[in-house]
Structures are given as structure tokens and as C-alpha cells.
Design brief:
heterodimer, A: 495 residues, mainly alpha, two-stranded antiparallel ribbon, 20 helices, 75% helix, 3% strand, globular, B: 637 residues, two-stranded antiparallel sheet, 25 helices, 4 strands
């Protein structure tokens, strides 16, 4: 049996056991067991992947197997992973694991919450292990639906509005996306839904590419918070419960960049070369615009959501540079942003759970009251502004150096524009840290608050370890991703 | 010389250890741990220096040694970021300077920070800073420099904001980080441009290695009328100017004095702020060959900054601010020295040697001044000059050592500052008489404001104290005495034997005319300061201040540069860019989405009536339909 199948079997088993679980302890036990298994599984997969590669297996995808489930449309459950998907699977399993602990204290309808949460992770894992267009899309949709309920029921603030908005915008995007996918399928001769086979055939006519590339890129791009279709992100994240924000910003938004790269650009290289500049401009707007918007926000979650717009913009920006280094940087940035933003949302959730406000004007001197959480927040902030030693620096520098190697002067100039984001990021991060975490405690009510509990500490520490590990020793990850982006980048070079 | 890796590792380990487990230790134990590890690092640095400078020369120059190098990140076919150690004359000199001053500061802080909350955290940050600064100077490639450049920036941020409940400290740390970050953007873009054309980050490759040909080709290319390499090196200088507080990016340094005084001594006087000078010196061969125009700009910026800061230093009343502006001014001297160099040989490259020499001597006497100031602040619990006065009787050791440092910075022989400053002036006169005279005048102003400070602290009118001030303890006075001793003898080091632009031995010889001139100017300035400030009443300065009130006030307000920045950040960036963008996002972009949603909703309300479920209505529509169809058939027939 293919090891990859376990990534969907475990969540299904978790859902089943949750269904029949009786009390809170059982639920917690199932979640801890399941998410730890997933984490271990991701570790084993990474090890196996690296040993197979080291043994000289140069196939584009490893662990391949196909299970046909709708043969008249050539729809198969085609499994297979390369370095990019392995990296994403590691990310997803870390976030599911830490998300479980971040929602340890949840009291309201715990069972249902975790049920939907598992379904969401099922969709995410399924998306990354398949290379069949239709199955990918199906898993993508599976991940999307629980979102509505999770935000609508367990959210805070304007939750109904936010849930509706997020779902409608993403659904709208997936409507365009499915049209794009079907377009790819039929234009390539309607013989296979498998990405590798379509790419190998490379027979999508130029005119069809010009129509379906923008559709697919846009369809995935909305999920990756592409300007001007990013507005679901601030509202959605602000209203979502902690673990859902973590999973959504940490992993689900990465589906966007991943899909743009693996589907839109890989399969339609000509259109990507011709139309790439339009999206390049949009993404550079995302990068700068998101950062500037973050400066004046007053809600911790909005600051982080706009910061995500800026950082995810950089992912799409980098893949459009179409060279190996920049593309590697893009994947690293997905990984790094996923971990950082999950840490942020986890910490914000913990702080909100105590102070019941996320307004930075009402928070002050938190360092004195909850030193552990505050130190973690400062670390997350420093990682976010791209300090060496954290993953953000590695990812951003790979992107900037890679993008600047582009031979075209337009691309180099636009890279310089994108680099200015590192200064703006510093402004909003330091502003919020200075205002909310340093200084004297202004609200005497806050003096009674306590610092993190063990489950919260575990969640934060795991994420910080991952961020630091990637930031201090990035070479193996960089090599693993770099080898895997190569086929896609090569396909993008037009002969 | 593999043991040099320990020089980097020890502080790093100490940072992790104190950062994670520090709060479980007793403060004193944490301090002792930090200090001992730094003691070992200092010892290792001295051994390295000894071994390096006694090793045989090859073709008359010291070899560049890379005892340790690993690939850290691969960025394409040719580009890769390495982390390694490069030993050459300037990096070895910097190792000694940094570890020595850092050791003194560690020792001194045992007394100065005694009883402070967060003592362990303080030592953890000091270790982090020392690690980053050492990593910066031994970098084998420009990207490693950038990595550690950012790390020293964040250590500086953390240490300035050490008293994190104090609003002024928070603001100062934020300002320091953001201003230098802005400058670092220039540095980063410079690296991008240089690596694009040179296809390497390595210093050895960039200078005379394989990429020399690539760079020669790039020297022909230009962007917006300026050569691409001038762009790259000019942008890098912006990074250097930010870190080294050159005008107009100097505004963070005076505010950085909010940090604990030993931190000011270490980071904001002796080591980190000279990183910019070090960077230019590191890239010096490229500047000389590919961007002589940028060197001239560096000279001008340096000279202007030196003058500007010296004028401001004359009227400040907070002793740490006076010292901060004096630091800015002295770094200006070093930049000028680099800028006036015209070639790599002994004569054209005199400025290079002078700049490194001054960096070395300045680190020692400026650290001494700051630590002395810390000792004084510790005694009188104030930074303001008016709360001091007459302290020479109460604090003899601080007094003598402070006086030595003042004489050194004023350029009085035989103290170290005289020798290094004399070389700078000689180089400036060689470049152009104008530059030489300007720098001589600034040297005079330096002597004046330093002795203004000295007299106001140790002579003048004694302020009323609640407790009688007394001399500080041994952990604080020993570093003072050690640094004072170095200041006395460092001038006699035959510096030209170790560090010159081309690496060949060069015998420093004093130029009599320049030396006489500079000493004369210094003595006259000191005399003026003596007349003005030694007495208990100071009628002349008060008279001058009221007569030139406008100039005095603007200098006191630091020529309103901070206000200009305040205006740009708050009124332009916050109010005119960020707020409108955020509004645009919420109301136009998002408004459009909401509009679509609302329109859909309205439309569905509208067409909902077609499916009312009332049979009567359906029957009417049905009937109408039949009538229309029958009518149409009839018409056609």
C-alpha cells in the first residue's frame, strides 16, 4: 500500500472515532494520537523521500500509484510527491498538530469542531498527495466547505458575514478554476487528468492557453490572496477561531501558490510567459499594498492578515520569475509563512482568550503580565520581518536573489520595488510590539491574567523550533525543493 | 588556526544557554558565566592575532586564511551563501577590538547593572551581540556580512529597549531598528546588483578572483547614466551610512543612548557603529577600481557629518548625548579617511590605513569615555551636566582615566588619538588643502567640546547631591584602567606594519607640519574651553548662547532633523499613504465585492416573484403565453 494513502486514511479514521467518541477526554486523545501520527508520518515520508533521492531515483514524482475511480472521464486517484509536496505535507502536519493544542481549551461543541477540523485537514492532505487535476480539485473543495461552518459557528465578531464572504469568494474562484481545469483537460486532448502526462504531452494549443491560464491562475490566486481578490482574508481570519486561522492562513492559502505553480504555469508555459507580467504587477501590488495597509490596522488579526497578503504576494511574485532559485524561494516562503502565520494566530488566540480584545490600543505592557506569550510574539515578529536565523530570512533572500538574476530589466526593477517591503514590515511589526507588549500595563484588569498553560506552550514551542530549524539550517530543504522545481522551471523555458 | 571557530561558537552557545536557562540561574552566576566565556574569547582573539601577525608573509603581504567555511544556502548555479571565517589583517584587528571591548563591558556590567531586573537577559543579549559582531567581521562573503549585519541590528534593538517599560527606550529602539533597516535595504539592493554582475558573493572572488573579468565587463554598463557598479557600491554605502550614523541617517544614534550605558560603550561607540566603516574598508579594492566617484561622495558625507555632529556636541547638556555626537563626528573622520584614498599604494592608500588605525584607537578611548560616563551616572544618578561638577575630588580614578580619554580624542601626544588623527589629517591634506583645513577645524571643535564636557563634570560648580558621590567598585574601575592604559600606549603600535591598503609594510612617519598644526589647534581649543568652563560661574558661554540664541537653539535641537523625519513618517507615510490605502482596501476593493454581493441579492429578490408558488398567477401567465403564441401563429399565417 502506498504510504501516501495514510495521509487521507488517518484523518478519515480520526473523523470516524470522533463520531463515536463520548467525552472530551476521548476527543482530546483521538486528536493528539491522530495529529501526532500525521506528524510522524510526515517525518517518515521525508526520510524515505530523501533516501530514495539519494539512491539516485530521479523520477519527477516518487511514491507513484494510480487508482482509477471514474474511467470514462479518465479521473484517477493518482498519488505522487516531489520535494514541493513533501515540504507542504511537513508544513500541514505541523500545523494540524499545533492547531490541536492551540484549541485544547475549546469548550463549545468540541466534538463537532474537531470533526470539521479533521475534514478540513483531510482536504488539505489530499490536495498535496494527488497529481490528478480533478481529484486535486475535489480535495480543494473538501477543504473549503468546513471553513464556512467553522467560522460561522465557532468564530468571533462578525462571523456570519465573514464566513459568507470567505466562502462565496473562494467558491467563485473555484468556479473559474473548474472551468480552467476542464479547459486544460479538453484542450490537451481529453486523454488524461494526470498533471505529469499533460505536461509531458505539452499539446495545449496556444490560444487555449491564453484563455485557460488566466482562469486557472486566478482561480488559485484568489486563495493565495492575489490583489484585488484578497479581501476575504482579513475578515475571514479575524473572525475564524484560532486553529482554523492557523490552518487556513498556514496551509490553505498555500494551496493557491502551489496550484498556480504546479497547474497553471507548469501546464501552460507559453501563456505563463506571455501573460505573466500582468500577474507580476498584481502580485507586486499585493506585496507593497498589504504591507502599507498593515501599518494602520489596530486589530492584531487584521495586522497579521494584511501581512499575510504581503507575504503570500511574494510567493506568487517569485513563481512568476520562472527561475529555479526564485521558485525554490517561493516554496520556502510558503513553508516559512505557513509556520510564522500559524504561530501568530495561535498567540493572538491565546492573548485574546485572556484579554478579550485584539485592539492594540487597549493592550499594553503584556510583557510584564504574560512573559512567555510575549517573548514568543516578539520572536514571531522578528521572524516575520525577516531576521536571519529564522525561516523568513532564508525564504525572502532566496526570492530576492533569485528574482534579481532575471535577465530582463523590468523584472529586476520590480524586484527592487518588492524588496522595500522588508522595511515596511519592520515598521508595522515594531509598532505593534512597542505598543502592546512593551511599556507599562495601562489596564489594571489585565494584571490578574496568567501566562501560557502547558498546551499553549507546546503549540508555540513546536512552531518556533520549526521556524528556527529552517532558518538556521536551510540547506537540505533548499536542495530538496530546488531539485523538484527544476522540471517545472525547465518546462517554462520556451524553446 | 581551526580554533578560531570557538571565537564565534562560545558567545553563541552562551546566548542560547543564558536565553533559555538564564532566568533559573542567580543573576551573579549568569554574569560570571558570560564574562568568563568572553574572557576566553578575548584570549583566543589575542592568540589568533599573535599567530596571524607573526606568520611569514608571502610576497610581502599577510596571506588571507579561511580556517572554516560551510555552504549554508545555495542560490543558483554560482551563487551560494557560505558561513565561514576569513582571517586577514583587518578582520583580525577587529576581532581583537571587539572581544577586548566586549570583555571590558561584560566585566564592567557586573558592577553597573548590579541589582537590575533582567540581569540574565542583559548578559544573554550581550552574548548575542558579541557573536553577531564577531561573525560580521570574519565574514567570508558579502551575504554573510549582511546576515550578521542584521543580527547586530537586532541585538542593538533589544539592548536599547532593555528597559522595556520606559516609553523613551521603546521609541528609541524602534527608531534605531527602522532607520538602520531602511539603510540596510540599500545594502541589500547593492548586494543584489553586485552579485548579479559578479556572480559571486565571496570577498576573495570579488577582489581579484574569477569574477574580476565579469566585473570589468559590468563596469562598462550603466543604468540611468551611472555605472552599474557605482550604483551597487553607492547603495552599499547607504547601508554603511545607516549603521555608522552618517548624515542624514544619524538620527537613531543619539536616541540609542536610552540603553544601559555599558551597551552604549560597546555597541554605539566602539564596535557596531564602526561596522559601516569596516564594510567600506572591506570593499575598498572595489571602490578604488570601479567607483572612485562614490569614494569622493563618502569623503564629503563624512566631512559634513563630522562637522555637523561636532557643532551639535558643543551645546548638548546630557553627557551621553555629547559623547554620542562625538562618536558620529569621529566616525565621520574615519569615513573621510577612506574617502580621500586615491589608490592602493602606500601614499594614495594612506587614508585607508589611517581610518583603520583611528577605528582601533577610537574604539578604545570612546569605550573608556562611555564607561567613565557610566561610572559618573552611577554616582550622581543623572545624565545632565548640571547635576555634576567638582567630581574630581570624589572619583579620582574615573577622573584620571576620563582625562586621558579626553586628551586622546583631542589629539594631544603621546595619547593614541593623536597618532591616528594625525594620519587622517595628513591624508586629507594630500587629497586637497580644503579638506585638510576643514578636518583640522573639526579636530579643534572636538577638543573644545570634549573639554567643555570634562570641566563641567569634574570642575565647575559642584551640584548638591543627596548622597555624597563616591568612586565605583573594582569591577567598574578595572576596565577603566585597562582601557586607559591601552589609550596611552596604542599610538606607538607600528600600525603600518600590519594594516595597509595593499598589505605591504609602510612606516608611519609623522608629518611635522600637520602634527604641529593639529596639536596647536587642539591646545588653543582646550585653552578656550578652560577659560569658558573651568570656573564655577560661566559668564562667557551664557553670553554667547544668548547672543546667538537662534543658532544655539537650533544646534541644541539638533537642527530639527528629527522633526523632519517625524513629519515624513507620520504626516506622509502614515497619513498620506497607509491610511488612504487601508481606506481604499476597505471601501473600494472590498466595497466592490460587497456591491456585487448586494446586487446579486437584490436581483434575486427581484426575480423571486416569478416563482411565487401561486397557481392563479401561473395560470394567468400560462394563458398569456398561449394568447401570444396563438397570436404569433395567426400573424404568420
Amino acid at each position: 500500500m502506498n504510504i501516501l494513502l495514510f495521509f487521507v486514511i488517518i484523518p478519515i479514521l480520526m473523523i470516524f472515532f470522533l463520531w463515536i467518541s463520548k467525552n472530551r477526554n476521548q476527543i482530546r486523545g483521538i486528536m493528539v494520537a491522530g495529529s501526532s501520527l500525521l506528524l510522524i508520518l510526515a517525518g517518515i515520508l521525508t526520510y524515505l523521500y530523501l533516501t530514495q533521492r539519494a539512491a539516485g531515483d530521479t523520477a519527477e514524482m516518487l511514491f507513484r500509484s494510480d487508482y482509477s475511480w471514474y474511467s470514462s472521464l479518465n479521473i484517477k486517484l493518482s498519488l505522487g510527491v516531489d520535494g514541493i509536496s513533501v515540504a507542504m505535507l511537513i508544513l500541514s502536519s505541523i500545523i494540524v498538530f499545533t492547531g490541536t493544542f492551540a484549541s485544547w481549551q475549546l469548550e463549545n461543541q468540541t466534538k463537532e469542531f474537531f470533526l470539521w477540523f479533521c475534514l478540513l485537514s483531510l482536504g488539505v492532505f489530499g490536495f498535496f498527495i494527488t497529481i490528478d487535476l480533478f481529484t486535486m480539485f475535489m480535495f480543494y473543495e473538501i477543504a473549503l466547505i468546513p471553513m464556512y461552518l467553522l467560522i460561522g459557528v465557532w468564530g468571533s465578531g462578525k462571523k456570519e458575514y465573514a464566513a459568507m464572504k470567505l466562502t462565496l469568494m473562494l467558491m467563485g474562484a473555484s468556479a473559474i478554476l473548474i472551468a480552467g481545469i476542464l479547459g486544460i483537460y479538453f484542450a490537451s486532448g481529453a486523454t488524461s487528468m494526470n498533471i505529469l502526462e499533460i505536461a509531458k504531452a505539452g499539446n495545449i494549443p496556444h490560444d487555449a492557453q491564453l484563455i485557460f491560464f488566466p482562469m486557472t491562475f486566478l482561480g488559485f490566486g484568489v486563495l493565495g490572496a492575489l490583489f484585488p481578490f484578497h479581501t476575504w482574508s482579513p475578515d475571514g481570519h479575524a473572525s475564524a477561531p484560532t486553529a482554523v486561522s492557523m490552518l487556513h492562513a498556514g496551509v490553505l492559502m498555500k494551496l493557491g501558490g502551489y496550484g498556480c505553480f504546479r497547474v497553471a504555469m507548469y501546464l501552460m508555459p507559453q501563456a505563463a510567459n506571455e501573460l505573466g507580467w500582468i500577474f507580476l504587477i498584481l502580485t507586486s501590488i499585493s506585496v507593497i499594498y498589504g504591507a502599507f495597509s498593515a501599518i494602520v490596522q489596530t486589530d492584531l488579526k487584521y495586522i497579521n492578515a494584511y501581512s499575510s497578503v504581503s507575504h503570500c504576494g511574494l510567493v506568487l511574485f517569485a513563481i512568476l520569475m520562472m527561475n529555479q532559485t526564485a521558485a525554490t524561494g517561493a516554496v520556502l516562503q510558503m513553508l516559512s509563512h505557513g509556520l510564522m502565520t500559524a504561530l501568530f494566530f495561535a498567540l493572538i488566540g491565546m492573548i485574546y482568550g485572556r484579554t478579550h480584545t485584539r485592539d492594540i490600543r487597549e493592550l499594553s505592557g503584556l510583557m510584564k503580565i504574560m512573559p512567555f506569550l510575549s517573548v514568543c510574539y516578539v520572536i514571531a515578529g522578528l521572524a516575520n520581518l525577516g531576521l536571519p536565523g529564522f525561516s523568513g530570512f532564508v525564504a525572502e533572500m532566496t526570492i530576492f536573489v533569485g528574482s534579481f538574476q532575471h535577465t530582463d530589466i523590468f523584472h529586476r526593477v520590480i524586484t527592487i520595488i518588492a524588496t522595500t517591503s522588508i522595511v515596511i514590515t519592520a515598521v508595522y511589526i515594531l509598532r505593534l510590539i512597542g505598543r502592546s507588549f512593551y511599556g507599562e500595563v495601562k489596564n489594571p484588569e489585565h494584571l490578574k491574567l496568567t501566562d501560557a498553560t502547558w498546551d499553549e506552550r507546546l503549540s508555540a514551542i513546536v512552531l518556533i523550533i520549526a521556524i528556527v530549524a529552517l532558518g538556521v539550517a536551510p540547506l537540505w530543504m533548499n536542495n530538496m525543493i530546488g531539485d523538484s522545481v527544476l522540471p517545472i522551471v525547465k518546462a517554462l523555458v520556451i524553446k | 588556526m581551526e580554533y578560531t571557530i570557538l571565537i564565534l561558537l562560545l558567545p553563541a552557545i552562551m546566548f542560547i544557554f543564558l536565553g533559555l536557562a538564564g532566568h533559573k540561574l542567580k543573576p551573579k552566576i549568569a554574569g560570571i558565566f558570560g564574562t568568563i566565556s568572553l574572557g576566553i574569547v578575548t584570549l583566543l582573539s589575542l592568540i589568533t592575532a599573535w599567530e596571524y601577525f607573526t606568520s611569514p608573509r608571502v610576497n610581502g603581504v599577510f596571506e588571507k586564511i579561511i580556517p572554516f567555511n560551510i555552504e549554508w544556502l545555495r542560490l543558483g548555479e554560482f551563487l551560494h551563501i557560505d558561513i565561514g571565517i576569513l582571517l586577514d589583517p583587518i578582520s583580525v584587528m577587529m576581532l581583537v577590538v571587539i572581544s577586548l571591548v566586549s570583555f571590558m563591558v561584560h566585566l564592567y556590567s557586573m558592577g553597573y547593572m548590579h541589582g537590575e531586573k533582567g540581569f540574565q537577559r542583559y548578559y544573554a543579549f550581550l552574548s548575542l551581540f558579541t557573536f553577531s559582531m564577531l561573525g560580521l567581521v570574519v565574514a567570508t562573503n558579502i551575504f554573510q556580512t549582511y546576515i550578521f549585519w542584521e543580527l547586530v541590528g537586532v541585538s542593538s534593538y533589544l539592548l536599547i529597549g532593555f528597559y522595556y517599560t520606559k516609553p523613551s527606550a521603546i521609541a528609541a529602539s524602534k527608531k534605531a531598528f527602522i532607520v538602520t533597516r531602511f539603510a540596510d535595504l540599500g545594502f541589500l539592493i547593492g548586494i543584489l546588483v553586485l552579485s548579479f554582475y559578479g556572480q559571486t558573493f565571496g570577498f576573495i572572488d570579488l577582489m581579484g578572483g574569477n569574477s574580476d573579468l565579469a566585473l570589468q565587463g559590468a563596469a562598462q554598463k550603466s543604468f540611468l547614466g551611472i555605472g552599474v557598479l557605482s550604483w551597487a557600491l553607492g547603495l552599499m554605502f547607504i547601508g554603511a551610512a545607516g549603521k555608522s550614523a552618517m548624515f542624514p541617517l544619524h538620527i537613531w544614534l543619539p536616541d540609542a543612548m536610552e540603553g544601559p550605558t555599558p551597551v552604549s560603550a560597546l555597541i554605539h561607540a566602539a564596535t557596531m557603529v564602526v561596522a559601516g566603516v569596516y564594510l567600506v574598508a572591506r570593499m575598498f579594492p572595489l571602490y578604488i577600481v570601479y567607483a572612485p566617484g562614490v569614494l569622493e561622495i563618502i569623503a564629503c558625507v563624512g566631512a559634513f557629518t563630522a562637522l555637523f555632529a561636532a557643532i551639535i556636541a558643543c551645546v548638548q547638556t546630557d553627557i551621553k548625548r555629547v559623547l554620542a555626537f562625538s562618536t558620529i563626528s569621529q566616525i565621520g573622520f574615519m569615513m573621510v579617511a577612506l574617502g580621500v584614498s586615491t589608490s592602493m599604494d602606500a601614499h594614495g592608500g594612506l587614508g585607508y590605513m589611517a581610518s583603520m588605525f583611528h577605528l582601533f584607537t577610537h574604539a578604545m578611548f570612546k569605550a573608556l569615555l562611555f564607561l567613565g560616563a557610566g561610572s559618573i551616572i552611577h554616582a550622581v544618578h543623572s545624565n545632565e551636566m548640571k547635576d555634576m561638577g567638582g567630581l574630581r575630588k570624589h572619583m579620582p580614578i574615573t577622573h584620571i582615566t576620563f582625562l586621558i580619554a579626553c586628551l586622546a580624542i583631542a589629539g594631544i601626544p603621546p595619547f593614541s588619538g593623536f597618532f591616528s588623527k594625525d594620519e587622517i589629517l595628513a591624508a586629507a591634506f594630500k587629497f586637497s588643502p580644503m579638506m585638510g583645513w576643514v578636518m583640522t577645524v573639526i579636530a579643534g571643535i572636538t577638543a573644545f567640546y570634549m573639554f567643555r564636557l570634562y570641566y563641567n563634570i569634574f570642575w565647575a560648580k559642584e551640584a548638591k547631591h543627596e548622597h555624597k558621590p563616591h568612586e565605583s567598585g573594582f569591577s567598574m574601575t578595572i576596565p577603566l584602567m585597562v582601557l586607559a592604559l591601552i589609550t596611552c600606549v596604542a599610538g606607538f603600535i607600528p600600525f603600518g606594519h600590519f594594516i595597509t591598503a595593499n598589505g605591504l609594510v609602510y612606516d608611519i612617519h609623522l608629518e611635522t607640519s600637520v602634527a604641529l598644526l593639529s596639536v596647536g589647534v587642539a591646545i588653543i581649543s582646550i585653552l578656550i574651553a578652560t577659560i569658558f568652563y573651568r570656573k564655577e560661574t560661566q559668564p562667557i558661554p551664557e553670553m554667547l548662547a544668548s547672543k546667538f540664541r537662534f543658532i544655539h537653539k537650533s544646534a541644541y535641537k539638533r537642527f530639527y532633523i528629527d522633526e523632519v523625519y517625524q513629519f515624513i513618517t507620520h504626516k506622509v507615510i502614515f497619513a498620506c499613504i497607509s491610511t488612504p490605502i487601508a481606506w481604499f482596501d476597505r471601501h473600494i476593493v472590498d466595497g466592490f465585492m460587497n456591491l456585487m454581493a448586494t446586487a446579486t441579492q437584490k436581483l434575486s429578490y427581484l426575480i423571486r416573484n416569478f416563482q411565487s408558488g401561486r397557481v392563479q398567477q401561473y395560470a394567468y401567465v400560462f394563458l398569456l403565453g398561449i394568447v401570444v403564441i396563438v397570436g404569433l401563429i395567426l400573424l404568420i399565417l
